[in-house]
Automatic annotation (TrEMBL):
<protein>
    <submittedName>
        <fullName>NAD-dependent succinate-semialdehyde dehydrogenase</fullName>
        <ecNumber>1.2.1.-</ecNumber>
    </submittedName>
</protein>
<dbReference type="Pfam" id="PF00171">
    <property type="entry name" value="Aldedh"/>
</dbReference>
<keyword id="KW-0560">Oxidoreductase</keyword>
<dbReference type="InterPro" id="IPR050740">
    <property type="entry name" value="Aldehyde_DH_Superfamily"/>
</dbReference>
<dbReference type="InterPro" id="IPR015590">
    <property type="entry name" value="Aldehyde_DH_dom"/>
</dbReference>
<dbReference type="InterPro" id="IPR016162">
    <property type="entry name" value="Ald_DH_N"/>
</dbReference>
<dbReference type="InterPro" id="IPR016161">
    <property type="entry name" value="Ald_DH/histidinol_DH"/>
</dbReference>
<feature type="domain" description="Aldehyde dehydrogenase">
    <location>
        <begin position="5"/>
        <end position="457"/>
    </location>
</feature>
<dbReference type="InterPro" id="IPR016163">
    <property type="entry name" value="Ald_DH_C"/>
</dbReference>
<dbReference type="GO" id="GO:0016491">
    <property type="term" value="F:oxidoreductase activity"/>
</dbReference>
<dbReference type="InterPro" id="IPR016160">
    <property type="entry name" value="Ald_DH_CS_CYS"/>
</dbReference>
Length: 463
């Protein structure tokens, strides 16, 4: 890899900034520094750590406009979504600043009068994070916040597409008073930095958000030093619309969950399954709404859909659409592009596909683009069967006002996050994470701090 990362604006292809790639020696030194600073950070009381994490959150809020600007420049997402992501990131900091004060232990009644049994929790040590480009702020915040609150030190490698938001976040953490070596950022290719992280004895935990194949590599490479691991990997969310659903509400929510971040999120609806009696009316309303979405440069306030992050992402989307059309899908809107490989920008207009079948790639592979494939089902049992026929198990959505249908769907869908009449489920106070090949561990909520803690059992005798 060259020793410079050229960060480009995906809406124009223009160079925004060059970022230095850290050398192997620099990264090793940073890991050592992170390990050494653990001694003091882990001993600081939780209330003082909390104040510093809240101060970091405050800095994010004060600099919201500037960071959102950086985020939209490097990621392309609409500015209104970037502004929302700063608030969302700050909400993780505030939640875990408080949650860190509630890392409780317990006592266990002993089997003899001469003993006491006490259980405490302590931070795991230096945490190394690898984060993706689709939420460059939030994916880091929801790892860093519980890590720091628990008393761990933290080092992050952001995606090469979007290092600038992370660099700004870390700069503000230091300005807020969090010591320099307690939270650090290093830059370089995923492969190189990932290997330095997994090989290091200093790193006690790897936390990763990204694709399932890379997650599997990191799990494998963490085995040699038996590290703790948290993995937020790919998804292929089904969205089921039952016969009795409130159609207008379902359409609105499906638009939101499908087209947020131009469809580039791991919880975006990837398969829309509609009961056969209402598939016609749902599709008509959905297409009408999809046509209203404005594609363009994220810097413009009225933009709903920004560019695709890069050529690789774009090629995958186009190939899934072509594959579906070859196999008999009908394009109701979209399948139109504004792309220039020379300049380096790739826009895909919102695309809705009808008559989609399970033989098509789009029904199995993550799309990460603004394409909505619609198919129908006859019974709720059949919908569950189609929905579960994937190695992924991150998010699933369904729309029904019938409590028996809803309960059945909740009980039988093999997914870690379920939205019942809800297309936007993420919140700092709720556990986010997947089953099956979508990952290990949870981020957010009470559960989100546990992966950063070790249990220590103390047995006191001779009393
Ligand atoms: P995507 O295909 O959506 O970019 P990736 O899983 O490739 O998802 O990337 C997510 C993050 O993982 C990025 O920070 C990237 O640099 C990093 N990464 C990519 N390949 C590897 C690897 N072999 N080892 C460790 N990290 C990697």
């Amino acid at each position: 890899m060259p020793n410079i990362i050229k960060v480009q604006n995906p809406a124009t292809g223009e160079l925004i900034q060059e970022v230095k790639v850290n050398s192997e020696d620099e990264i090793k030194q940073a890991l050592k520094n992170g390990h050494e600073s653990f001694k003091s950070w882990s001993k600081m009381n939780a209330h003082d750590r909390s104040k510093l994490i809240h101060a970091w959150s405050q800095k994010l809020k004060e600099n919201k406009e500037e960071i959102a600007h950086i985020m939209t420049l490097e990621n392309g997402k609409p500015i209104k979504e970037s502004l929302g992501e700063i608030d969302y990131s700050a909400s993780y900091l505030d939640w875990y600043a408080e949650e860190g004060k509630r890392v409780y232990g317990r006592t266990i009644p002993s089997h003899t009068e001469s003993k006491r049994i006490i259980v405490t929790q302590q931070p795991v040590g230096l945490v190394a994070a690898i984060t993706p480009w689709n939420f460059p702020g939030a994916m880091m915040a929801r790892k860093a916040a519980p890590a720091l609150a628990a008393g761990c030190t933290f080092i992050v490698k952001p995606a090469v597409e979007t290092p600038l938001t992370t660099i700004k976040f870390i700069e503000l953490a230091h300005e807020a008073g969090i010591p320099e070596h307690v939270i650090q950022c290093v830059n370089g290719s995923g492969k190189n930095v990932g290997k330095l992280f997994t090989d290091s004895d200093y790193v006690r935990k790897i936390t990763f958000t990204g694709s399932t194949p890379v997650g599997k590599t990191l799990i494998r490479d963490s085995a040699s030093t038996v590290k703790h691991i948290s993995m937020e990997l790919g998804g292929h969310a089904p969205l089921i619309i039952a016969e009795d659903a409130d159609l207008d509400f379902a359409v609105k929510q499906t638009i939101a969950t499908k087209f947020r971040n131009a469809g580039q999120t791991c919880v975006c609806a990837n398969r829309i399954l509609v009961h056969e009696t209402i598939v016609g009316s749902f599709t008509e309303k959905f297409v009408a709404e999809a046509k209203k979405l404005k594609v363009g440069n994220g810097m413009e306030m009225e933009t709903d859909i920004g560019p695709i992050i890069n050529e690789k992402g774009y090629n995958k989307i186009v190939s899934q659409i072509n594959n579906a059309v070859e196999k008999g899908a009908e394009v109701l809107v979209g399948n139109t592009y504004d792309a220039d490989k020379e300049q380096g920008y790739f826009f895909v207009h919102p695309t809705v596909l009808k008559n989609v079948t399970t033989e098509m790639d789009i029904m199995h592979e993550e799309t990460f683009g603004p394409v909505a494939p619609i198919t129908s089902f006859k019974s709720i049992e059949e919908a569950v069967e189609i929905a579960n026929a994937t190695p992924y198990g991150l998010a699933a959505y369904f729309f029904t006002n019938n409590y028996q249908t809803g309960t059945y769907l909740h009980d039988n869908l093999d997914f870690g996050i379920i939205g019942w009449n809800d297309g936007s489920t993420s919140a700092a106070h709720a556990p986010f994470g997947g089953m099956k090949e979508s990952g290990l561990g949870r981020e957010g909520g009470q559960e989100g701090i546990e992966p950063y803690l070790e249990t220590k059992y103390l047995s006191i005798g001779n009393l």
